[in-house]
Recover the amino acids of this structure.
């Protein structure tokens, strides 16, 4: 897999799409987090920033949480939002993705929110559309989930004040997780050097050394210094690759009350959701005092509002 | 089944949710009917009352009519409306209802419209959400359908001027009908003492005496004094419990032109819809001069607008 | 099949519905095209023309392209748009179309966008609804697709300046094509006398002579004088009626680079979409310099905005 990571920037290095974390600067991320804070702290939930703009969601993979937050974010910015029901669409079945995209582009849409099971699809679409459309990656294959990473950074900053000297542990199937990859890249850009990954060895990427992250094959020893513990959702269908039963997974990597008690007192526990209670995380922890899982959901709205409005403002619109 | 009927009121006895008719006062109902009349009689169909508010519909049972009226009512109040497609959602399948609710709550939704096949689900949700969300019951199991009852009261008041001295007959499966239960409770609060229920004996609740309603096992004798006849939709799958064939049901309880001719000349005929023509009601009657069935549909919009805006205005919103 | 073509006009011959092209005058069409141009050329994508109006889409046949353009058009006119999900609706299954229509009418909808596989359904609905609702035909059976024809006229006028002395060729299954029929009728009203139809003989209507169009049984000789070539989508399930294989169809009627080279240099190539690449049209042509296919898509929005706002302005609204 190789992706054109430069495609999301214009000649002034401003964002014209939002496709992945790679090549973002600390400034890019800080600008997003600052604008998100503005949207989150205003009295009103309604803004006029994207009035007259049309945003289409193209989810080739099912989703509720992410799709709903993008729809809410669009509406709170006063954009016209349209959901292309790809899974139930019959007309589109015979049509290539590219023909569909070109058709929507011709309808004067300003932005597509794209989720696809094939890594790189949003980049491919961005490379094919004209200068008047922006693409937001809402998750592509095992590659990237950049808006999730941004809402996670927002949540960390809110609770920890900043990123310098933080110790972050990520637990689960790092190999297949687009969330984990986008988080690690974001943390590195923000200067976080102590990153631990924890999970079955078979579910770790080959390039751990290159990533400069520490590997632990059990929660013990992996979370005791952590300021932030990020749990990943267990994909049960991946377990055969991990050569591990769900019971053993829970024993080694499930976050329980006893295990979180071995970490720092003010550690925050994160999870992209939806959570598998009693599998990768116990209810005691998910609903406990260290959990900031619902804060992540809340951040998802204002962070996506920030990304969408930044990208559309940077873009030069020609009718 | 036991429900916390106090949960929908704040300390000043104002509505903060709308879950059932029980414990409502005549004042509560009159306030709803008056506000509904305001919305119905204004020149414009567009109001700014809920601008900036977010309303999510959570229909765990399929519905078109009720869901559509809530969506239209939300839009006419300028709220952002979002439909959570639970039946087609795959992500949510592994998630508990409570996790889904907490997630939507974290997205700063202001109101959930809930329909569920299990009685009491809206009360359970109302007991679990925080102080910033209002729940509207759009029908729960065999328990309650309070917005339907309110639109029926609106329709009766419109055509009969008021409720004192009215004689009302309700025909069909009272036992399983959430509509019938909410109507009877509403009528009693409004001072209607002459209520007749008509239908197969096996489809009557045990507490008819306690309810102080009169039972008739055929339309004859049950509707001749009625000012209002409310037909219920026949649920064909209940007929085996009633030990009655659809043919015999029609013969005894189907409302025909001949039968309505035995009632008062100015009787109004109501039905919550969708109607089974030729089963519980003939087209001659459904489309005839005594029918106010489409008036009920019209009332459904303004009554739901009234309930939604009342509840959201009463609620103390903390961001 | 016989349809009441007068039903779409009021006593002043203004449009109160938009059901078919028959009986339209050149003035009617020019008014639509002029208003569409206004919407297309304004700086903004957002207009207040239909604020407070409610538009419901009723697609009994699946569609993405047409439904999406109507939804976008409605939103850009600031109408409240509601999609009745007929295919997934369970409540409506037991309900007749007429009961559903009457119910939506009672909800104070102002306009229905109707697509149905049975020819004449929009006319039937228009004959049954009251004076406050307008019906737009979004395609009925093999009969009519008038908004498609209007967007095609818009596209032709944009590229050719006008209609006098034009030579237009339409290629494909004319017999079953509602698009072809509406286009031919429109062209005749606009004074286009040289119309060629090209396709398998079995897929031609009986009344070619009456229509005063010339028939060709191959692309050669049919497109060499054409200013406009309109390709129709091949419905593979019709091929057995045509007694022709898809391979032979492509050989005789598929538009290739070589074949378009035999036409005028400035010929424009149109297609209602979605296209079957390599079946009725090659990618070389669909994406080539003569293709205006994406212009048609763009025109679809402003033309539908024009039709919807004209019809609703003509209609006398009584609440």
């Amino acid at each position: 897999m190789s992706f054109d990571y430069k495609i999301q920037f214009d000649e002034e290095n401003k964002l014209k799409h939002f496709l992945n974390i790679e090549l973002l600067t600390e400034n890019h991320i800080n600008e997003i987090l600052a604008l998100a804070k503005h949207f989150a702290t205003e009295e009103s939930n309604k803004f006029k920033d994207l009035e007259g703009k049309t945003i289409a969601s193209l989810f080739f993979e099912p989703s509720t949480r992410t799709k709903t937050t993008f729809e809410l974010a669009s509406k709170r910015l006063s954009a016209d939002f349209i959901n292309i029901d790809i899974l139930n669409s019959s007309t589109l079945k015979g049509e290539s993705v590219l023909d569909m995209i070109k058709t929507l582009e011709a309808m004067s849409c300003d932005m597509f929110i794209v989720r696809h099971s094939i890594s790189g699809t949003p980049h491919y679409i961005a490379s094919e559309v004209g200068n008047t459309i922006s693409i937001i990656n809402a998750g592509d294959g095992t590659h990237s989930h950049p808006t999730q990473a941004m809402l996670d950074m927002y949540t960390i900053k809110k609770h920890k004040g900043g990123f310098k000297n933080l110790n972050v542990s990520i637990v689960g199937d790092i190999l297949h997780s687009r969330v984990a990859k986008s988080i690690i890249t974001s943390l590195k850009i923000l200067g976080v050097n102590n990153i631990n990954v924890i999970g079955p060895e078979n579910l770790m990427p080959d390039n751990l050394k290159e990533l400069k992250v520490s590997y632990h094959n059990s929660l013990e020893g992996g979370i005791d210094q952590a300021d932030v513990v990020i749990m990943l959702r267990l994909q049960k269908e991946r377990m055969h690759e991990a050569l591990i039963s769900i019971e053993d997974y829970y024993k080694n990597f499930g976050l329980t009350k006893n295990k979180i008690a071995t970490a720092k007192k003010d550690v925050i526990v994160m999870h992209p959701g939806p959570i598998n209670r009693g599998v990768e995380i116990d209810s005691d922890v998910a609903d406990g005092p260290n959990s900031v899982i619902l804060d992540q959901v809340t951040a998802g709205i204002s962070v996506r509002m920030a990304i969408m409005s930044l990208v559309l403002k940077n873009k030069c619109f020609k009718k």
Summary: The mean pLDDT of chain B is 93. Residues 14 and 127 of chain B are 17 Å apart (CA to CA). Chain B touches chain C through 27 residues (CB under 8 Å).
